[in-house]
Amino acid sequence: MSLRCACVVSLSKDDFGKILHFRRFPTVEKRCKTTYGEEYGPIPPLPIFINNLLVRLSLSADSKQYVEWRDRSDMNMQLPVVEVPAGKQEIWPVVSIAQNSLLICCLPFVEDMKNVNKENLLNIPSISVGFSVILGMLNFIQSDERNSSLMQLDNYLSLSMPFGTPSDVELSCASYIQKYHTQKFLKKQPAWKPFEYKGKQLIHFKITEFARSAQSDQSGGICHFETFGQVSVKADLEGGLNEVGISVISTDVGHPLMLDSIVIHPCVNIQSGLPNLPSGFPKRLRFSPPLHEFVVFHYCSLQPKAPPIQGVFKMLANNSVELLIQLKLNEKVKNSFDYFEVIVVFFNRGPVKKSEFYSNHGTHKLTEDKYTLKWSLGTKFPKDLEADLSAKLEFHDKPILPNSDPFCVDKNCYAQLNFKQSNSTLSGCNIDAKNVTASEGSKPKVLIERTVQSAEYRIWNSYGDVPFPVNIVNKYNKVFS
């Protein structure tokens, strides 16, 4: 699985269509010519190839005009894979992605072209490889200042895909090899860890958890709530292939850890045979960490079953409205936040003309464009764990927001909760710091960072509709009368 060529084209207004980087792999092209025989089609001259590609993707200046070979009814568009005309022949498959004023494309070498079903791209490994290469190039270009990264892109391609055949190379490793390419290593290192770390030894674990919720006070109280997260590690350890062992435990000794839908990194070894495994999850994991931070596993949690913050949002009328937001913090949740704010965007309305606010806690304000209400609760709820905000708003009858949500019209609206909490998790997931081991006898310092933050935590208007089926959501007991 190799690539015939890779290219970066500018899509900015100043230099649209300019070729910023092009790399052809002659050895792959020679293999392609030998394999295809009479059906071989060479890569056309670069300006013609790029121009036809821009036309094919409808990115050129004449994209609104009808082009027969592109717009005829029997054409089958399978983005990001397209077919580009080249004289009497067609160049296929061309994989391309347009992002951040750049078009990055490549031409994978499909060895068994005669037996390929173009309708089923998932069964063509070289296309998947080409797509991965493009994503890697995008990450490399965005990892540094664009001009300097484009200058170094050729070196990156030489490291990540020598002779046109991609290999698994981490960006941080590639950058180090480029910087210290003259260094002579005393022993051979794996590609994912090309050099040994020297310095203070530290293993830094990050347990990042997210809380997603959709709530509404209609029909007796509706709530869809889920908790999911990941455990990542950055290990600064001396030694070539130092193996690390960790134990996953619960912060509450009285309650076992209840994790579900666990996806473990394929390079992590699972130690079986341990007693009292919650939901079949192995508590002991072993891995040889790379130099960069990587995710050990992803998970969903069955706990807690109740949302950390329960709320009610009411907004009634059109140009002159009354608004009410009530929030209650769950008693089992720590009353300490890095930040906590409520955002209400007034979609499909004019800007606010007049406003009156009252709240028992925090500060509130309208944004400069008068389209968004921000209520900041600071770092804590009041002692009774309840906070409320009421407002009377009058709107101008003016043009709507350009990015308005088509669903959020009239009474269909929501209040979004944005919060972050450090040194805490809702699931109770934790790493046993006393049971972290390193195979080469070192005793590194262990740092464990745990955070919980919101992800689409929304409370929908009690008087409006909700964009999800009510019959599949969970229900909770009302806390507001």
UniProtKB/TrEMBL annotation:
GO terms classed as biological process? endosomal transport; protein transport
- Annotated membrane-spanning segments are none
UniProt key word Protein transport: yes
What cellular-component terms does GO give this entry? AP-type membrane coat adaptor complex; cytosol; late endosome; lysosome
Domain annotation MHD: ranges: 200-460
Subunit record text: Probably part of the adaptor protein complex 5 (AP-5) a tetramer composed of AP5B1, AP5M1, AP5S1 and AP5Z1.
Q: What are the subcellular locations of this protein?
A: Endomembrane system
Return the Pfam families for the record.
Adap_comp_sub
Q: Which family does it belong to?
A: Belongs to the adaptor complexes medium subunit family.
- What is the protein name for this chain? AP-5 complex subunit mu-1
Task: Name the keywords, alphabetized.
Answer: Membrane, Protein transport, Transport
Please report the organism this UniProt entry assigns to the protein: Oedothorax gibbosus
Q: Please give, as recorded in its UniProt entry, the membrane topology of this protein.
A: Peripheral membrane protein
Q: Which domain of life is it from?
A: Eukaryota
